Amino acid sequence: MAKISLLIKLLKLNNYHSHFAVELLLVIITVIAASGNLMLKANLGAVNPANKSLLFAYLAESPDLNEKLYNSLETINLELAADRMVLEKQVLAASVKADETAGANEALLPTLSGSALLKPNPAGNGALLKKDIETYEVKGGDTIAQIAGVYGVSEDTIITENNLSGSIIKPGQELRILPTTGVKHVIKDGETLDMISKKYGVDLEDILEYNEIEIEDHIFPGEEIIVPNAVVKKTPTPQRRQYVADLQKEDYKKVEVPDDYQPALGANSDFIWPIPAARRLSQSFWSKHRAIDVPCRDCQVVAAGGGIVEIAGWQKGYGYTILINHGNGYKTRYGHASKLLVTAGEAVTQGQAIMVSGSTGRSTGPHLHFEIRKDSSYLDPMKNLIR
């Protein structure tokens, strides 16, 4: 009996130690799990929409624990940012309904064809920004200004890249859109970046940095580069060159009229309306335009008063012009003629035909430019004409 009692006591003792070991193990596991959770929770701020894993956030703060996983995290972030950028550019127009009652008072997004435009705004740093030329298909109602605003480039950039004539575009037309305001330039044989920099008036460093060129000499004929903020200087057409040359030329005859000159007939300050066929003004007398403009094509122009033709011929800005000296310091000028009917030194009477109206010189259209001067002052013709 004594032996049996001893065996029972030993079994109870072993049972006690076994339970204690199990409970101790569970406590240790609980402590380890709680510590891990607390550490992960402390790194919760590192979580972002591109990475919702607490484990990755923890590894980002402790890269030495698993370098491969940390490097994989960086790669994933770069790929996600690039994907977002591509998606945003592809989804250019998102359908929206116009609010008819509040539309006039609300600041809406710029629209093309009635749809809200999403301006590309890729996440991440500048290294992720696309620098490719994109293509946009014009929709009904689109304008160059709207498209330029969406892509963040100037209107001139779109016009120049697509060889457009002004701002005229039509639905279905495909436009090439540069990644930034500037000009696409194709490298020519023998051309250097320094030459390109001077051609467009853009700092060389700006060209190197934007195109990520480390060595200036590492460019080859046929390669395309973007010259940021450059503007193409358009070569003037032959007509434009002739027009500019005409504006600058001087080809007239002038006579000296005595200071005491008096016209034979009529009071020299009683001026009549100089263009009988027209009365409407296209421009009045004001500080920047000390004359009146009377629009009329190929209309007869008469002398407002009697006097001597002091100047007849082509003068800069005026085109074909006539200046009549009326004596006592009064003079009248008639500009932009298509044809002159009198010559310098000729005496004219009030109402005599002296020219035919036109659009020569710096003119916006066929009209008579008419001035009245008294000594060195310009007078308002509308206050000094007998009509």
TrEMBL record:
Protein name: LysM domain-containing protein
Domain LysM positions: 134-177, 183-227
PANTHER family noted in UniProt: MUREIN HYDROLASE ACTIVATOR ENVC, PEPTIDASE-RELATED
Provenance organism: Candidatus Doudnabacteria bacterium RIFCSPHIGHO2_01_FULL_46_14
Superkingdom, natural source: Bacteria
CDD domains found in the cross-reference section: LysM, M23_peptidase
Transmembrane segments: 20-40
Key words, A-Z: Membrane, Transmembrane, Transmembrane helix
Gene Ontology molecular function terms on file: metalloendopeptidase activity
InterPro entries in alphabetical order: Cell_wall_metabolism_enzyme, Dup_hybrid_motif, LysM, LysM_dom_sf, M23ase_b-sheet_dom
SUPFAM superfamilies from the UniProt entry: Duplicated hybrid motif, LysM domain
